[in-house]
Design a protein that fits this description.
This protein has helices at 23-31, 40-47, 51-65, 94-104, 111-123, 128-135, 140-149, 170-176, and strands at 76-81, 84-89, 126-127, 152-157, 164-168. By secondary structure, it is α+β, with helices and mostly antiparallel strands. This is SMC-Scp complex subunit ScpB.
Length: 203
C-alpha cells in the first residue's frame, strides 16, 4: 500500500520523470508561473525533490533576492503567505507596477470580436462577407477592431470580386503562446454539429 505523502516523502506520481537542473532553478521556474502561494509539499511534488531540500532551496532564494549574498537585492521577493510561497513585487514598487500595467494592458476583446477572430484564424484566407455568413451577423466594425489591434491583417485582394482576404498575424500567435497555426486545436469537436462552415482541418 502506498504511504501518504509527508514532508520527507513528496507525493510524486509513480513513473513520473524526475526533472533535471539545479533545484533552485527548477523552483524558480515554478514560482514564476504560479498565481497563488504553494506549500513546500506542493512545490516538492512539482520539482521532484524532498521537502527538506526544497525548504533549504527556498531559504537560499530568499537570501539571494534580499541581496544578502554576492548580488544586489531584487525588485521582487519570495514571501510566505498562509503557509504557501510565492513571488511578489516589493511593496515600494507596487505603484510603479500598477501604473505600468494600467498603461499597457489593452481592454479585453468582446465576445463578438473573439468569435470573429476564431473564424478568421481557422478559415483564412477569408473575406469579410464569408466571415459574416458564418457568424450570421455584420462584422465590419469587429474586423476594424481586430485590424487596429494588429491581430489580423489584409492578405490580398481578390482579382475577380475585389474582396479583401484576411488572415491572422504573428501578434495573435504570441498572445496565444503558440508557434504556428498548426498548433490550434481541431475546430469540429467544438461545434454543435461539427460543421457550420468549417471542415475537418484545424487550419
Amino acid at each position: 500500500m502506498t504511504e501518504p505523502a509527508t514532508e520527507e516523502q513528496e507525493p510524486r506520481p509513480v513513473g513520473a520523470p524526475v526533472p533535471e537542473g539545479p533545484l533552485t532553478e527548477r523552483l524558480e521556474a515554478i514560482l514564476l508561473i504560479i498565481e497563488e502561494p504553494h506549500s513546500l509539499v506542493s512545490l516538492a511534488a512539482a520539482v521532484g525533490a524532498p521537502v527538506p531540500a526544497v525548504r533549504q532551496a527556498i531559504e537560499t532564494l530568499v537570501e539571494e533576492y534580499e541581496g544578502r549574498g554576492k548580488g544586489p537585492r531584487r525588485g521582487f521577493e519570495l514571501r510566505e503567505i498562509g503557509g504557501g510561497w510565492r513571488l511578489y513585487v516589493r511593496e515600494e514598487y507596487d505603484d510603479l507596477v500598477a501604473d505600468f500595467v494600467g498603461g499597457q494592458a489593452p481592454s479585453r476583446l468582446s465576445q463578438a470580436a473573439l468569435e470573429t477572430l476564431a473564424v478568421i484564424a481557422y478559415k483564412q484566407p477569408v473575406t469579410r462577407s464569408q466571415v459574416a455568413s458564418i457568424r450570421a451577423v455584420n462584422v465590419d466594425s469587429v474586423v476594424r477592431t481586430l485590424l487596429a489591434r494588429g491581430l489580423i491583417t489584409e492578405l490580398f485582394q481578390d482579382s475577380e470580386t475585389g474582396a479583401i482576404n484576411y488572415g491572422t498575424t504573428d501578434a495573435l500567435l504570441q498572445n496565444l503562446g503558440i508557434n504556428s497555426l498548426d498548433e490550434l486545436p481541431p475546430i469540429s469537436p467544438l461545434l454543435d454539429d461539427g460543421a457550420d462552415g468549417f471542415d475537418e482541418r484545424t487550419i
